[in-house]
Specification:
This protein is an alpha/beta fold. Helices cover about 40% and strands about 10% of the residues. The chain has helices at about 5-35, 40-45, 45-55, 80-90, 130-140, 160-170, 195, 200-210, 220-230, 270-280; strands spanning about 70-75, 150-155, 180-185, 210-215, 240-245. Bound molecules: thiamine diphosphate.
């Protein structure tokens, strides 16, 4: 085996371990919150881990560093895994989240850029992340900055018209440093996306708006690493859309692949079971 293949195996193993750690922290934070959005928080963990622990040009010691890459979590209800990612990356100590969901806390169901170090945009009302990401990428062009902009969206969020206005603009302006990711976990809060208001064929839709499109397994660390490594990085070329096929509630058998655990509260017994499962200690139902 070559040295670089060995390094890359090590990287994959390290990121997979990180993803297990973040899933456990998500369950614990969700229990501390009382109730939360477990399903969509768990489905995007591998994507966040690859971005925050390998891809993004960031410095947790300088959250406002001007030349950092920008990341917008457009599905702001995913705070329960996103905040542990930021904390584990070093933006703030985990103890800051102890009062999560209490009156006056910086940490609630959604993320607030004025209160949480490392958050580039306050989100929660769906459909606003990509339009702002387009504005950021255009501003970078004007300011001649080589920053990249990443925007992670939900799949049911694709029902928002504002996303398609932004997608149209990104294709027109050839915002090559923009990367949109869709967490394609197949379920909205109420049920199957294709029954509620179909979003497919998603690949063809983004392609028709002038984007490069990749579809991949959103739980495969190697696939995610490859896709991010292949981003053009140059301005004035097609923006990239990554459609990441994921499982809502990934890692916890009784939460997986359904809308039931979009939002909920865990009993003590189920929390213990969920933690054992995300640690890989058991997968029994
Ligand atoms: C504009 C807007 N409408 C409705 C909601 C309520 N809401 C919160 S999460 C959600 C479902 C989102 O589903 P999806 O985008 O697929 O996210 P995920 O499954 O990844 O959690 C809805 C409708 C909202 N936050 N914003």
């Amino acid at each position: 085996m070559t040295a670089s293949a060995q390094r890359s195996d090590e990287l994959v193993r390290t990121l997979e371990a990180r993803a297990r750690e973040i899933r456990e922290k998500t369950i614990r934070l969700g229990v501390q919150s009382g109730s939360t959005h477990f399903g969509g928080s768990l489905s995007m963990v591998d994507i966040l881990v690859v971005l925050y622990f390998h891809v993004l040009r960031i410095d947790p010691q300088r959250p406002a560093w001007e030349d950092r890459d920008r990341f917008i979590l457009s599905k702001g209800h995913g705070a329960t895994s996103y905040c542990p990612v930021l904390s584990t990356a070093g933006f703030f100590p985990a103890s800051k989240m102890d009062d999560i969901n209490h009156l006056g806390s910086a940490f609630g169901m959604h993320i607030d850029m004025r209160k949480i170090p490392g958050v580039d945009m306050s989100t929660g009302s769906l459909g606003h992340g990509l339009p702002v990401a387009v504005g950021m990428a255009l501003a970078d062009r004007v300011q001649k900055k080589d920053r990249r902009v990443f925007c992670l969206m939900g799949d049911a969020e694709q029902n928002e018209g504002s996303i398609w206005e932004a997608a149209q603009a990104a294709g027109h302006f050839k915002l090559g440093r923009l990367c949109a990711i869709v967490d394609r976990n197949r379920y909205s809060s109420e049920g199957d996306t294709e029954e509620i208001l179909a979003i497919e064929p998603l690949h063809e839709k983004y392609a028709a708006f002038g984007w490069n499109v990749r579809r991949l397994d959103g739980h495969s660390i190697p696939a995610l690493l490859d896709a991010f490594a292949a981003l053009p990085g140059d301005d004035h070329t097609k923006p990239t859309a990554i459609i990441a096929d994921t499982v809502k509630g990934k890692g916890v058998s009784f939460m997986e692949a359904g809308a039931t655990w979009h939002y909920g509260a865990l009993s003590e017994e189920d929390a213990t079971r969920a933690i054992a499962e995300v640690r890989g200690e058991t997968t029994s139902r």
